[in-house]
Request: fold
Amino acid sequence: MYAALHFPDLELHCLLRHEAISPSLPIALLSAADREKSHLVALNATALGCGLSRGMASLSAMARCPDLYFLERDPVAEKHVAAELLFFAESLTPDFESTAANTILLDLSTLVIASAKDWTDHTLGKASHLRLPLRIATAPTPDLAHLRSLSPDLENAHPLAVSELVRSDSFPLTRSDVEILHLWGIRSLGDLANLPRQGLSERLGPQLTWLHDVLHEKEHRLLTLRRPPVNYAASHDFENPIANFEPILFIARRLLRPLCNRLRNTQRATSTTRLKLRYENGLSHRHTLTLTESTLDPEILLRALHTHLDTVRAPAPVTGFSLRLIPALPAHKQHEIFRKGLRDPHRFADTLHRLSGLVGSDRLGIPQIEDTHRPDSFRMHPATPDFHEITSLPITPSGNLPMARLRPPVTVGVLSEKRGHLQHPLAILTGPHRGEIIRTAGPYPLSGNWWDRTWQQLQWDIEIPNHILQLTHTPPETWHLTGIYGA
Reply:
């Protein structure tokens, strides 16, 4: 099945969607000539209701409708709209043909759709952002779908007048052909379809015979597929600077779908997205979003973009942004039979990014003991969805008596006396465990990091009534309760 996207009077409506003109006014688009010598190229519904027609001279049109509002063609706007239409067609399917400036033919054979009507309604909803009139017709052959899109009845091409095909560059029909058809009493394509094919080529020529075959679904040509250059980047400039990131997410959803289609056509996926925000004050923000696995799902890419934008603080309103997908080979994994992995590693990675935005990237991870004598020294190993095994130091108990370490250590007041160069504890005066020290073991001096920042501690194992504790002395006068044995 094929579908035709037809945008009637595209040259006029690409101007009306930006011009602040009331649709109740009669509006006409002039040809590229002097005002006195120009003629009407396109008209809106109000101008057609005033009795005007295409091809009418501008002076005659003004005499018939004094309130007629004239517009002139804008090649820059038409070029921009043409690129936007191709980008929209690419978001529907990668197999399409740019048949004319206002018509695009799509091959729907590779798509899984419930029905042609459901696909048409869904496409009309997706095209609402274009703010252009759109006519969609489907048919078993591409040229028949094109004819139906030009017809007043989108389900049937027969009501279309043959004179309308002269204005279309896609069908080889001239004014002389139309005059001959009118002499034969043929006014519409339905009249042409009712003629017998035998002897049609000798009487009307091969062009009309070809058109007769199209109407009877006997002509099925191949589409000239448009293959855009291998470029996985897209950008958007806002008409007015925006103060929040909601419009960026709305536009990015439309941009990511055709970019993923391009990757799919080249048998690639992506795990890296480069984002660039342009601010009104001339500054810009660049960031690289990295996924745990390569994907072709635009929703996953959009979710990662949303997570990052929640952490960005814009110094000025945003004037535009750009996205670039870095192609990579799709991921292929052989999952283990007796080991259950993550169902959605992208969602787990998104959760990690959100947590790092709240607590900081240096405070999120898996604690790993460092190779040092400094108590409780550790570093944070990054948490990754693939759960690589972390090589950590073996933890062996120093004795048979377990110790509950207090984190953080409790500052206590200790009565001590100086013996030589060290302070020896005699009693604990403040804290959760107080009393006279009965026995002591130590001190065990700990020190290190002399090249970075010096630290020095003296560790004591002490016994008070009913408890065996661990004390730490940081010269000159600070004492901490760091552990309780047998707790």
